[in-house]
Amino acid sequence: MIRINSDKREKNMQRLLDIIHNNPTYHLGSFHEECDISTVVDCLYNLLYQEDNKEVHIIIEKNTNNSLNLIVDKVQ
User: Fold this and answer.
1) Which residues contact 48 (CB under 8 A, 6 or more apart)?
2) CB 35: neighbour CB atoms within 10 A?
């Protein structure tokens, strides 16, 4: 059985409620398929400057048709 620390569980539940309530475009775990470089720039701008995060991890994959897949991996 996996036991999750109650503080960590509470923090994760609050994060989930914030995502559901605020319905942001870019959030932890969001996946954006076949986007372009302007979407990547928009994502970084929103996460770093408008939401005032200090750290963002993203994964960018190039598709065969030269479009991009964007995955927001970590936001702090």
Assistant:
1) 56
2) 16
**pLDDT tens track for 2-54:** 666 777 788 777 777 776 777 677 777 788 899 999 999 999 998 889 888 88
The sheet with strand 31-35 has its strands ordered as: 31-35, 68-75, 56-62
**CA 62 to CA 12: how far, in whole Å?**
31
Residue 30: DSSP 8-state:
-
pTM for the model: 0.65
Integer CA distances (angstroms), 64 to 31, 44, 67, 70, 72, in order? 18, 24, 7, 15, 21
Separate counts of helices (H) and strands (E) for the chain: 2, 3
- Strand 68-75 and strand 56-62: the pairing is antiparallel
Q: For the chain, give the number of residues.
A: 76
